[in-house]
Design a protein that fits this description.
alpha/beta; seven-stranded mixed sheet; 13 helices; 13 strands; globular; Aminotransferase_I/II_large; PyrdxlP-dep_Trfase_major
């Protein structure tokens, strides 16, 4: 009898749709506005040559520099393969498959559900309100058995910050029952909104960070989990022995130097200026129905015929991110902020499309 490999797999994995990352979706563009990356490479030289030795599990210089940058102690910082690994480590450390649940509020980042399904943990969703704020009464009704609540602020793909009074209310209702994980992948674009200063007050608060966005190092796969030492100690029990390759730690340490942080802030100022320019230009185009305010390096917009807009731009090598399948986002496309030239190409293509449809 021949062995059917698929039947050997776990049933939930057989049924799983993998996360559709920007690179998995493909395209042959030269203006990549679909993955919220920084549009230009940043220069780094590798200085570590000892590749015959295993790296440190938690590279000291990376931890110390990130702690200083975030205003925390090294004992409150864990470094991992992107913030995506942090999302998964929290489930592995705190959720029993088949017993515990996580909760999040769509429309939001797609990896929360994919990680839960992969591990075999129930996930519950409480749709955000029309302004994409938390529906606190509905969350309260769903918390029984929930161990981890994920909340993205600024939220991906909508670009809005979550109201801080609501976050305090969420932390109050979960105290002693569940962790609240604030995903701050885009916080460098609105640093005053960070919750890092709240860790002392809330032992069950966890914050996720990354070097992929404002630090322009998406190819590095380096993220951070910020939490109080009891949480970090538990995550250290389930993390891989060598999560960060030596060259990754090398470049991350350089990126978190004084000069590296100054360069990142300069990049943020440039992208925020380009975002402000796009925010002025987009509403003047007839195929654009609505442009949503953003605190990030992307803008969400609703179009009159979003499949046509998406494909027309795709055919011209301008790649956007389709959000139609996300709850409440019919007709929406997400536009990463590129260079000024890329933003101008986008606007010119949309203007040409508007003239065609007039």
């Amino acid at each position: 009898m021949s062995l059917n490999i698929e039947e050997l797999a776990r049933a939930n994995v057989r049924a799983l749709t993998p996360y559709q990352s920007a690179r998995r979706l493909g395209g042959n563009g030269d203006v990549w506005l679909n993955a919220n990356e920084f549009p230009l490479p940043v220069p780094f030289e590798l200085s570590q040559q000892t590749l015959n030795r295993y790296p440190e599990c938690q590279p000291k210089i990376v931890i110390e520099r990130y702690a200083a940058y975030a205003g925390l102690t090294p004992e409150q910082v864990l470094v991992s393969r992107g913030a995506d690994e942090g999302i998964e480590l929290l489930m592995r450390a705190f959720c029993e498959p088949g017993k515990d649940a996580i909760l999040f509020c769509p429309p939001t980042y797609g990896m929360y559900s994919v990680s839960a399904e992969t591990i075999g943990i129930e996930y519950r969703t409480v749709a955000a309100l029309d302004d994409w704020q938390l529906n606190l009464p509905a969350i309260a009704d769903q918390l029984d058995g929930v161990k981890v609540v994920y909340m993205c602020s600024p939220n991906n793909p909508t670009g809005n910050l979550i109201n801080q009074d609501d976050i305090r209310a969420l932390l109050a209702m979960t105290a002693g029952k569940a962790l609240v994980v604030a995903d701050e992948a885009y916080i460098e674009f609105c640093p005053d909104a960070s919750l890092a200063g709240w860790l002392q007050e809330f032992p069950h608060l966890v914050i996720l960070r990354t070097l992929s966005k404002a630090f322009a190092l998406a190819g590095l796969r380096c993220g951070f989990t910020l939490a109080n030492p009891p949480v970090i100690d538990l995550l250290m029990k389930v993390i891989a022995p060598y999560p960060l390759a030596t060259p990754v730690a090398d470049v991350a340490g350089q990126a978190l130097s004084e000069q590296g942080i100054a360069l990142m802030r300069q990049h943020v100022a440039e992208l925020n200026a380009n975002r402000a320019w796009l925010f002025e230009q987009l509403p003047q185009i007839s195929v654009v129905q609505q442009v949503f305010p953003s605190e990030t390096n992307y803008i969400l917009a609703r179009f009159t015929d979003s499949p046509k807009v998406f494909k027309t731009l795709w055919d011209q090598g301008i790649i956007l991110r389709d959000q139609n399948k996300n709850p409440g986002l019919a007709g929406c496309l997400r536009i990463s902020i590129g260079t000024r030239e890329e933003c101008e190409r986008l606007i010119a293509a949309l203007q040409a499309l508007s003239v065609e449809q007039a």
